[in-house]
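Is this the right way to post structure tokens for a design question? Let me know if I should format differently. Anyway, here goes:
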């Protein structure tokens, strides 16, 4: 079960990254081109938020039940986890970064529903989604990251 959820969590990463790139591009082009905030803009943000929340639920389950999250903190102690870069990444940094990014995505999605001018919607969603994307990119255990790297799609 853990490996299946890890695969699904990793697969959702690609969906989230793709949707975040599309959302940032749509908001950026809408902001610079003075375009209307369309239903497609709203749907992109909605699908991004849904994928991010599903990934969060899977990730929280893995953090609580898996070997690198809560169990590791309980077994080793928080101080020991914080001294080890691998355990710190999976026990604290990945979780914290992703929660912050998902909060930004959710707030960005909320902005798109407000009754404000379209130019302001594009500007606000652009910045919320862009900052979330940067945090996600920094919080992913990419294969090139020494010690913490994981395959692009684990268990394939």
């Amino acid at each position: 079960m853990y490996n299946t959820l890890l695969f699904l969590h990793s697969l959702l990463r690609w969906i989230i990254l793709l949707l975040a790139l599309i959302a940032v591009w749509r908001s950026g082009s809408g902001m610079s081109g003075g375009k209307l905030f369309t239903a497609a803009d709203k749907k992109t943000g909605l699908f991004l938020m849904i994928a991010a929340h599903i990934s969060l639920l899977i990730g929280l389950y893995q953090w609580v039940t898996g070997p690198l999250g809560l169990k590791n903190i309980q077994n080793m102690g928080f101080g020991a986890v914080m001294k080890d870069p691998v355990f710190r990444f999976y026990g604290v940094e990945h979780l914290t970064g992703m929660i912050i990014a998902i909060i930004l995505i959710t707030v960005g999605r909320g902005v798109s529903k407000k009754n404000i001018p379209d130019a302001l919607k594009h500007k606000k969603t652009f910045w919320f989604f862009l900052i979330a994307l940067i945090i996600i990119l920094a919080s992913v255990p990419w294969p090139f990251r020494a010690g913490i790297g994981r395959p692009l799609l684990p268990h394939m």
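Format looks fine. Someone answered above. Worth noting: The chain is about 80% helix and 0% strand. Residues 2-27+50-139 form one domain.
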